[in-house]
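Lecture notes, unit on binding sites. The following record was shown on slide 14. It pairs a sequence with zinc ion.
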Amino acid sequence: MCVRIFWAEVSRMNSITLDLPEALELALVAHCKRTGDSFDHVMVRALADFLDLEHHTIYQVSTSGALVEGIYQGCVRVREILKQGDFGLGTFHGLDGEGIMLDGTCYQALSDGTVHPADPDHLAPFWVETHFKADVDTTFDQIRDWEDLLCRLDTLRSSDNIFAAIRIDGIFSRIHYRVACKAKSGTDLVSATEHQAEFCFEQIEGTLVGFFTPDYAHTINVPGYHLHFISRDRAHGGHVLDLAASSVNVAIDHEYQLKLVLPESSSFLNADLSEDPRAALEQAESKKRP
Ligand SMILES: [Zn+2]
């Protein structure tokens, strides 16, 4: 015997009707009663698992605390990173530049100002990515600077307590970004980024790729906003410090799940990660320097 189950979710999701065998229906109802999960949630999770898609899930390699302590030894290959998402950012073995993943391609921005598709055999010591699917899609006009952008992004997120992926496309009237220079493992992040390469462009078209991380997760990822830039011609890119734009498209993907992969290197296993990394991250990742 078959029954018909109908489910729908608001905001950009499609409705599907399907014939469900009785045994599956009984199992589904029992599961939902037991866990309190909605039919929608179970079916979306089941389909995502079957199709190997992890929407609303962040896949992350290592932690912000480890990066601050200078753990730059790569532990996951780019070819593996490419299987876990299509949108993200990070860095490469030895803090060798900035990583940008956009539309399923992974790029390495180097401190000489060049950008290349990342070698699939390259290793990353830190990476954050997702399968990007917009929950919010809108336009921002007349962005004065970085702080102005962040205030406006705040209004688009539904909570300060969940993660979000952020994609911004358009022409930037001004953009200032940095690219980390290679550093020896064990050099703390603040010292390593004291000699970073910085670049400024005007009237450049491109995309900002990044994440919002809740403050409570500051030992896991950079708290607040962290955005990398890549130009439309894929010739320029780096970690954004400041910008201005007259009109850009802004898309937000809320992230409710986090898959964290921890390095098995001795430098990670033996590191003291008990320090609060917020002050060091603020210094190393923003344009505010003492
Ligand atoms: Zn960055």
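Take-home: The radius of gyration is 20 Å.
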